[in-house]
Structures are given as structure tokens and as C-alpha cells.
Hints:
It is built from 9 helices and 14 strands. The chain has helices spanning 69-96, 127-137, 148-155, 166-169, 179-184, 191-194, 209-218, 262-265, 292-312, and strands at residues 2-8, 16-19, 30-35, 38-44, 49-51, 61-62, 65-66, 101-107, 113-119, 140-145, 225-228, 231-239, 244-251, 254-261. Strands 1, 2, 3, 4, 5, 6 and 7 form a 7-stranded mixed β-sheet that branches. The chain has a 4-stranded antiparallel β-sheet with strand order 11-12-13-14. Helix 1 packs antiparallel against helix 2.
Amino acid sequence: xxxxxxxxxxxxxxxxxxxxxxxxxxxxxxxxxxxxxxxxxxxxxxxxxxxxxxxxxxxxxxxxxxxxxxxxxxxxxxxxxxxxxxxxxxxxxxxxxxxxxxxxxxxxxxxxxxxxxxxxxxxxxxxxxxxxxxxxxxxxxxxxxxxxxxxxxxxxxxxxxxxxxxxxxxxxxxxxxxxxxxxxxxxxxxxxxxxxxxxxxxxxxxxxxxxxxxxxxxxxxxxxxxxxxxxxxxxxxxxxxxxxxxxxxxxxxxxxxxxxxxxxxxxxxxxxxxxxxxxxxxxxxxxxxxxxxxxxxxxxxxxxxxxxxxxxxxxxx
Length: 317
């Protein structure tokens, strides 16, 4: 077991794991550690905890030391310089009439490197801009184009749920999100309701994907026949969250809708199938079943169509 601490080098930045054996740390402490920008000052964002050796990343590093007063003061000056660099770069972009949206500017702790983050819909020729920036800061300049999700993570904001954006709080990596996830959750395919602050599909669609997939496997599909204590009916609607089934009964041209908890009628439907031989719908059926061809189509063709839709689904822009 090793003692681990999570630290971040920027507000709403990526959370990084470091070894902290021999250090007594609490949330908010400032420490010095190696980052992709070199030795940098980071903030502890979570109480230290123990982690098994086999779960440790291969490239995990220990924190170097606690930050002293001079380094904390230097960190404050670095933040001021980053704001000045942002303003200066913004004016140079306007001067060179470049089609790019500047997002952030970051200095390395030693001040020898400056990274500017921007977004753009097109390729940008920023060679003249780099020359002007080098002349202004006398440091190594790097211009890095990022996507809309990374932009939201850097800028921050509040989601439609009323909470701070997930990417700014706990998400370390962006997982793929597709329209299929929204369909599986019976959500309206309305971009204004499915897209987050970044203009892409909301990351939270990924969180409950496995739970909805499990519910879809266990519950019947709309239009299927099911047995209930009141007789056999047709599934009119399902609620995946409550796991309830709305069943439609038709008698003498009069329809009635009754809602059942699936757990209450699941045992009655383990062998419900076609009317010809009562064989299950999810298998091919017995050899004497006149609906055997339909069972095969249900077994193979429909699943293939679903697979095709998965590959074709894409984010809503």
C-alpha cells in the first residue's frame, strides 16, 4: 500500500495522483511537484489515501516538497503574468486578423515557456503571431489548438442541472458520447436539451449507460405480448428508471392501460412467446413452430440493425 494524494496545478484543472509518503497533507495545502510544464506548484484537492501497489500508475511520481513562502509569492506573480500574456496575445490576434478564439495562457513556473490555448473552425497560419509573442515575452512560445470540450473545462461554468460542470470538478478524461445513449434512455433527441455548455452531447449521458443497458436486457420491448395477473396484453410503454411496464388490454374494441412493476410480473413471462407454440421470443423456437422464420429474423436481423445504428450514431453539433 502506498500513500497517494490528488493535486491540481490550475483551477478546474486535471487532477493528478502523486506519492506523498512522509508528508502530512490536508486539502488546500500547496506542494511542489513535477508536471508536464516542469516543476510546478500544485494544490491538494483531496485528503491523502492509501492505494494498493498493483493499482498504482506506472509513471506515478512523488511530490517534491512543500511550497515555501517565496514559491507561493512567485505563483501569485505567475498568475498576474498569465493575465498580461492573455491580453497581449488577444491584441496581437486582432492586429494580425486571425480567425481564432483565444481561451487561456499558461506560464511554466520558471517563466521560460508560455502556452496559449485557442479554438478555431479552420486551420490558422500563426507564424507571424508567434514571432510577435517571442519578441514580447522572450520565452519559448507554444500555441495549442483544443476542442470545444477542453474549452469548457478550462473556462468553467454551470450546467443545466444547476451544478458546476462535471469536466471542471471530477472528470479526468472525456469518454465518447453518442446519440445511442440518449435513445437508450428514452430522451428527446433535441440538441438544446442534450448538448452541454461545450455544444456537444453532455458527458452525463455516459454515467448511467450500463444501468440503462441492463434494464433494456431484462425488460420487454414496446409492442411485445406479456402475461399479467389480469391476462395477456401488449406492452404500450416502459419506464426504465422505475422499471414499470404499461400494458394495453383490448376487449370488445375497448382498450385499457394498466401499469405493473416489472419485478411483479417478470416470473410470469419467462416462457411467453408466439401464440402458435408459446416458445420464447428470444430464441429460434421449436422445429414445429410455424413462426420459426420470424424468430430467426428477430434473433439476427434486428440485432444487426442495432449494431449498424451504433456505428452511425454521432454527436449533436
